[in-house]
Amino acid sequence: MHVAMVTAKLPSPQETAGRIRLSRLARALARYGTVHLFAALRPEDRAAEGRRAGEGLEPFSRVVTHAMQERPLGRWSMIPEEYRMFPDALVRAVAAGNEVHPFDAVVLGSVAAGRAVGGIQRAAVVLDVPRVDSVAREWGLRGSGARTAARLLSLRGWR
C-alpha cells in the first residue's frame, strides 16, 4: 500500500493530542506499506523542523515540508483563511508524488489539507479530523444568539 499523509502541522514532536493521533495513525499504516508525509509548517513547527535538519522522521519513508503561506485576506472571501494559507508548493509536491507512483490512499490530517487532493483521482481519501470546523462554528453560532451575515458567510465557506 502506498499512502500520502497530508497535514497542516508536523506530527512531531508529539506534544498535543492531534500530533499524537497523526503519529499513531502513520505507524499503523506503515505496517501495511509506505507512508509519505506532506506537512505544512506552522510557526511552532519551524523549530522542530530545524532540529530535524533533513533527517528522516519515523515511520515516514519520505517527508516533504513547506511553510504555511501568507495570503492577502479577501474581506468577503468564502474560502477559509487556513485553507488559503495551505502551501501551493505542498499541493504540487503531493501531485508530483502521485504521478511518480500513484497513491492508494491519501489521509488528510486537516480540512485545509484538502487542497492537496484536487489532482488525485484514484486514491481513497480519508479525512482524519476529530473536530470538523464547520460543525464547531455552527454550534458556536447557535449558542451566540447573534446570526450576523459575516458569521453565516464564514460558516458557509467552511462547509
Element string (H = helix, E = strand): EHEHEHHEEHH
Helix share, percent:
40-55%
What's the β-strand tally?
5
Strand order of the largest sheet: 3-2-1-4-5
Mean pLDDT: 78
Largest sheet: 5 strands, parallel
Helical segment count: 6
> Radius of gyration, rounded?
17 Å
Distance between the termini: 31 Å
Which regions have little confidence, pLDDT < 50, spanning 5+ residues?
Answer: none
Secondary structure class reads alpha/beta
What fraction of residues sit in β-strands? Answer: 15-25%
How would you sum up the global shape? globular
Describe it:
There is one protein chain. It contains six helices and five strands. It is an alpha/beta fold and 159 residues long. Helix 2 (43-52) links the parallel strand 2 and strand 3 (62-67).
For this entry, give a set of tags.
159 residues; alpha/beta; five-stranded parallel beta sheet; 6 helices; 5 strands
Q: Would you kindly provide a brief summary of this structure?
A:
This protein is of the alpha/beta class and 159 residues long. It has six helices and five strands.
Q: Mind sketching the topology for me?
A:
Layout: E1 2-7, H1 17-30, E2 34-41, H2 43-52, E3 62-67, H3 81-85, H4 88-100, E4 105-108, E5 124-127, H5 133-144, H6 149-158
Helix pairs in contact: 5-6
